[in-house]
Amino acid sequence: MKALRTAGFYLVAGLFFLWAVFPFYYAVVTSLKTGFAVMTPTLWPSAPSFANYVHIFELGFGRNVLNSVIVATLTVLVAGLVSLLAAYALSRVSFRGRSTLLVTMLGATMFPQAAVLSGLFSVIRGLGLYNTWWGLIFSYLLFTVPFTVWVLTAFMRELPQELEEAAIIDGAGPWVIVTRIFLPLLAPAMAATGLLAFIAAWNEFLFALTFTLDNTARTVPVAITVFGGSSSFMPPYGNIMAASAVVSAPLVVLVLVFQRWITSGLTMGAVKG
Asked: Which residues of 196-209 are buried (b: 16+ CB within 10 A; e: fewer)?
């Protein structure tokens, strides 16, 4: 009976694995086809070719990848610093309206992007940030900071109060407490929220489409859309799939590398310490 349950578990897990991985695998297979071969569904191309990968980088896709890396990385760094300090204030400092502020911050993320698009566009144009990295970073902070603040606040509340009291007795100020004492303990939580914020910034499309004009700041999701509209005869599926494979690979690697930190970080605040 135990062997049957084990076999059933692995069967279900294998089916979920195939369901999750097959789209990425098929994108890679299609990216290795050229011409009308991309329209023929096969599990492996008869004549694999890297021509699509060469072509997309000739079209300037490398610049789009660089833009996405810089924008997503800076978004994570800024959101991480702001969220760490905000989480300390919301979890350790007593002031009127603390809970209301936290709920309001989380509630702001419930609005769809389209609801704030026109107003945010006017702000970015007024600040001279249109078609720049900083315009995208500014807009991405709207949905990354509330999430990271909420999660880090829950984690920081679980840290023993005695650590902070001992540091205060030794003459440590808030900055030293946050950076020297709390930050090392929050490393798994920072890694988990940072990676989720990176993925959100990396995949964001609507703001990137609205606030960029050319390859100066255009990120990979918008660039893939441009590839899709570059042919009036037949969409260049090979180029689209090659670009999708290039975009997906870094996220897969990051998740595999940090999967243990993600698991421990997301469950860290779920139990009492």
From this structure: bbbbbbbbbeebbe
What pLDDT is recorded for position 271?
A: 45
Burial class (CB in 10 A: 0-12, 13-18, 19+), 19: exposed
3-state DSSP assignment of residue 49: coil
Check: CB of residue 39 under 8 Å from CB of residue 160: no
| Torsion angle, alpha carbons of 35, 41, 46, 50, to 10 | 50
Confidence at 103, pLDDT banded by 50, 70, 90: confident
Mean pLDDT of 128-141: 92
**Could you tell me which of 56, 269, 49 has the C-alpha nearest to residue 158?**
269
- For 114, residues 6+ apart whose C-beta sits below 8 A from its C-beta are 206
Residues 236 and 222: their CA atoms lie apart, in Å, by 15
Nearest Cα to 46, choosing from 58, 29, 63?
A: 29
Structure tokens at 230: 């570059």
Taking alpha carbons only, the member of 43, 58, 8 closest to residue 242 is: 58
Q: Find all residues with CB under 8 Å of 121, minimum gap 6, and list them.
A: 210, 211
- For 52-63, the pLDDT digits (tens) are 899 889 888 899
Q: What is the pLDDT of residues 203-251, one digit of tens each?
A: 999 999 999 988 888 999 998 888 766 555 566 778 888 888 898 888 8
Most distant CA pair in the chain, distance:
73
Q: Calculate the dihedral angle through the C-alpha atoms of 69, 71, 73, 79, rounding to the nearest 10 degrees.
A: -160
Q: What domains does the chain contain, in order, with CATH numbers?
A: 60-219+243-270 (1.10.3720.10)
Tokens 């494979």 map to which residue? 245
